[in-house]
Recover the amino acids of this structure.
């Protein structure tokens, strides 16, 4: 009897397992399909695209569209491909990510280890910053950039992204630091370490997981941003996302789907790369606060 | 000029007063224990000595210097925390050397100090490990090493043993006592464990609700508790409190007790009880003062033997604890296992009344 019911539960659990895997496979397929179409179309010739259908594999693999997308496709009036804009993006994304992460770490440190009168209010105000949509800040930001004399510059774009990102990075670091026992800071204070030394020598070295989280998050956000890019930069200073949009909209008769697809993948590659390299730290970092060191 | 002097120190958060005027004097080289239940303000007081917390009013002097306005680093103190507070990203060596670096001690000197400290605490093999690779006891030892390396006037310990398991706690307790003997520095030690307090302290301050209930040597506090709280808090198993009526018999004072179905009048020559004739008082008697009948050649004036019914017997190995009922209250007696009778049997128990203390039931203060 016991054996029978045992066998039954075993059977039903196997069925449940199968259902779970089937569902997962379906979801995977659903998410991977666009990537597959993107990739396969980018490797087709234009003739191939015309004659075949969306899902068919390329008859003959060609790297020509990739070449064009990178260095000779026309974006607006310039026919130099995505490469210029690709490096443009790097030029402001890297400093913006590093700066916003550092400022976030510093804010988090102050908000947890050196609480002051009104620090809770300050934190709440910063939190609201996470919910402010991009569109709302466009006009005031344009005026601010003008007043600072950095409109339409790389510095200006870095400034915008740092300001916008600090709300998120502060939240990350503050929530991470709240799990670090404050006796650590007290011990360092008694030994004579000051505000900055405690930050550099003790708190920051403990922050690797959350730094990785912040970098991934900020990199994805800033790299993928379109709105700030299109509003606060012009011409050959524009980021890759804006260039991609312009590339697709620049019509010269026939729409070169394969070139567009290749360009889209080029624009997405850095974020993909960051996720693959640092992805496991991302999950680890997000859950790290739960485990006491 | 004491090593530490705390004068009328008060602390309030808003309208709540957590320390209500603390006065303590500690001599050079003494081991002071602050003991009390959670929330009595002992850790707050320690934080204030360290300078991690501000003082609302009053003065703290360390080594003859008023330190109220000095920051922690200038108070010449070292502190050992409950969570050890070792820097997780540094090795043991770096943990010890961190404070020395900040005080700009030259490298060769640092190396020397680290070697000394490691030798005192026998942790040379651990120097290059990270705190995460150490056991609880080892971490505690490193935390103490860090404090010793500082060579301060005053050591502060904040419940350093409460994260350790029972066996290790006893070992580390001995080690701290040895350390105090060897280093000879003044120590202020916070604990909620009255056994730690008794075994380690030269002086004990028993605290409750932001006040010092009693300040004295361990033996003074054990034998002469100032009030009901101190009497009940110190000692394990704790002191028996029996409500009794004060009576006069043949012109002598006595207290009335009822046990084993019989009523006895125990004479007492304590004149202070005269005011309480006909009233109830609380009689405090420690469990070890109630034991089996001993034929003593010494002074037997304070010994009284009563026949009692054993409700429960709890053998602990070294002693057997017997619960009897006196005046409808369970009373614990500490009897040698060879002489203890079994549960539900009757037994003659000898009461040594020489160290009995009496409390007023309303004020809870000691009468005599």
């Amino acid at each position: 009897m016991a054996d029978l019911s045992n066998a039954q539960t075993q059977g039903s659990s196997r069925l449940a397992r199968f259902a779970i895997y089937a569902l997962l496979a379906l979801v995977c397929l659903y998410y991977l399909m666009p990537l597959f179409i993107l990739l396969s179309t980018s490797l087709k010739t234009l003739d191939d695209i015309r004659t075949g259908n969306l899902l068919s594999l390329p008859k003959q693999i060609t790297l020509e569209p990739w070449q064009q997308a990178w260095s000779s496709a026309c974006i607006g009036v310039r026919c130099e491909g995505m490469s210029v804009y690709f490096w443009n993006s790097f030029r402001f994304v890297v400093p913006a990510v590093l700066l916003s992460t550092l400022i976030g770490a510093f804010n988090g440190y102050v908000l947890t280890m050196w609480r002051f009168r009104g620090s809770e209010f300050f934190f709440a105000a910063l939190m609201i910053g996470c919910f402010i949509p991009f569109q709302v800040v466009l006009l005031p930001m344009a005026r601010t950039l003008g007043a600072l004399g950095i409109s339409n510059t790389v510095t200006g774009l870095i400034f915008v992204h740092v300001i916008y990102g600090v709300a998120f990075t502060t939240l990350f670091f503050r929530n991470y630091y709240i799990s670090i026992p404050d006796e650590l800071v007290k011990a360092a204070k008694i030994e004579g370490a000051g505000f900055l030394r405690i930050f550099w020598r003790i708190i920051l070295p403990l922050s690797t997981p959350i730094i990785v989280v912040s970098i991934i998050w900020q990199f994805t956000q800033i790299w993928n941003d379109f709105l700030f890019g299109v509003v606060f930069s012009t011409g050959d200073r524009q980021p890759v996302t804006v260039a991609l949009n312009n590339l697709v909209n620049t019509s010269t008769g026939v729409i070169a789907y394969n070139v567009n697809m290749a360009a889209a993948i080029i624009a997405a590659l850095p974020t993909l790369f960051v996720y693959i390299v640092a992805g496991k730290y991302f999950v680890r970092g997000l859950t790290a606060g739960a485990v006491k060191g | 000029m004491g090593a530490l002097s705390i004068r009328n120190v008060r602390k309030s958060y808003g309208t709540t007063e957590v320390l209500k005027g603390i006065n303590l004097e500690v001599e050079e080289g003494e081991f002071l224990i602050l003991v009390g239940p959670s929330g009595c303000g002992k850790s707050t007081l320690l934080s204030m000595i360290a300078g991690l917390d501000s003082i609302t009013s009053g003065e703290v002097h360390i080594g003859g210097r008023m330190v109220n306005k000095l920051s922690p680093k200038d108070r010449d103190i070292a502190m050992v925390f409950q969570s050890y507070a070792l820097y997780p990203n540094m090795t043991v060596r770096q943990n010890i050397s961190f404070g020395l670096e900040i005080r700009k001690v030259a490298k060769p000197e640092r190396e020397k100090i680290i070697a000394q400290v490691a030798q005192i605490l026998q942790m040379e093999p651990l120097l290059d490990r990270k705190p995460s690779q150490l056991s609880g006891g080892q971490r505690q030892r490193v935390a103490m090493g860090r404090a010793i390396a500082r060579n301060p006037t005053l050591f502060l310990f904040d419940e350093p043993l409460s994260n350790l398991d029972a066996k290790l706690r006893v070992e580390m307790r001995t080690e701290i006592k040895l350390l105090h003997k060897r280093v000879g520095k003044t120590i202020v030690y916070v604990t909620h464990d009255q056994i730690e307090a008794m075994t380690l302290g030269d002086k004990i301050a028993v605290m409750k609700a932001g006040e010092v209930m009693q300040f004295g040597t361990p033996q003074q506090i054990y034998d002469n508790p100032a009030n009901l709280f101190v009497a009940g808090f110190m000692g394990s198993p704790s002191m028996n409190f029996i409500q009794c009526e004060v009576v006069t018999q043949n012109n002598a004072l006595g207290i009335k007790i009822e046990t084993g179905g019989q009523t006895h009048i125990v004479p007492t020559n304590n004149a202070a009880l005269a005011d309480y004739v006909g009233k109830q008082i609380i009689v405090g008697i420690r469990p070890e003062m109630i034991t089996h009948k001993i034929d003593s050649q010494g002074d037997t004036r304070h010994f009284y033997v009563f026949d009692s019914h054993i409700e429960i017997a709890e053998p602990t190995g070294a002693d057997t604890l017997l619960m009897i009922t006196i005046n409808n209250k369970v009373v614990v007696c500490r009897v040698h296992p060879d002489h203890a009778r079994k549960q539900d049997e009757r037994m003659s128990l000898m009461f040594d009344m020489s160290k009995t203390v009496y409390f007023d039931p309303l004020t809870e203060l000691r009468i005599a």
